[in-house]
């Protein structure tokens, strides 16, 4: 099992834009309205922090590899090598480079019409890290940090996210 996790602040930011771009999901007039719903577990798929908390009990199992979006974004070559090794797949240098090239956000966004149809325009927006800084106020930041600590702060997944997001930033 490959478990891909991401900074909850960027998850909220991305989901805000995704929700407002997809008519099948509730849209929000303001970021504050969305943030309130996100923090009070009123999302169509539940709470991301609870999701992380539930997955944490499996984080030490040998058939589970946890990867953060941030670490793959920082070094796709190493990320692909680690994932391939975990899955028991040996890649030639040519295959590795092909996967690295095709898994770049820019490549996936460019091909999104072919791979996802019109849904691709909504699904592939920026693909960056730390976009949350464009929406979060100091109050939002404090509330998210407090909820993060409550749900996953001291857990293996929480520590991995903290390291990738805060220590490497």
TrEMBL record:
Record SUPFAM superfamilies: P-loop containing nucleoside triphosphate hydrolases (SSF52540)
Domain spans labelled Sulfotransferase: 1-155
Alphabetic keyword roster: Transferase
Pfam families xref list: Sulfotransfer_1
Enzyme class: transferase
EC number: 2.8.2.-
Domain of life: Eukaryota
InterPro entries membership: P-loop_NTPase (IPR027417), Sulfotransferase_dom (IPR000863)
A GO MF label: sulfotransferase activity
Family note: Belongs to the sulfotransferase 1 family.
Official protein name in the record: Sulfotransferase
Natural source organism: Smithornis capensis
């Amino acid at each position: 099992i490959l478990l891909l996790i991401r900074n909850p602040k960027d998850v909220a930011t991305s989901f805000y834009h995704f929700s407002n771009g997809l008519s099948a999901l509730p849209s929000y007039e303001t970021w504050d309205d969305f943030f309130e719903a996100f923090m009070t577990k009123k999302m169509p798929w539940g709470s991301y922090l609870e999701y992380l908390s539930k997955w944490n009990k499996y984080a030490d199992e040998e058939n589970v590899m946890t990867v953060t979006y941030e670490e793959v974004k920082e070094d796709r070559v190493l990320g692909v090598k680690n994932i391939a090794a975990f899955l028991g797949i040996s890649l030639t240098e040519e295959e590795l480079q092909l996967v690295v090239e095709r898994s770049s956000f820019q490549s996936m966004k460019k091909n999104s019409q072919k791979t996802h149809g019109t849904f691709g325009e909504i699904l592939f927006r920026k693909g960056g890290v730390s976009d949350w800084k464009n929406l979060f106020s100091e109050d939002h930041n404090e509330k998210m940090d407090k909820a993060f600590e409550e749900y996953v702060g001291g857990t293996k997944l929480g520590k991995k996210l903290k390291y990738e997001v805060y220590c490497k930033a």
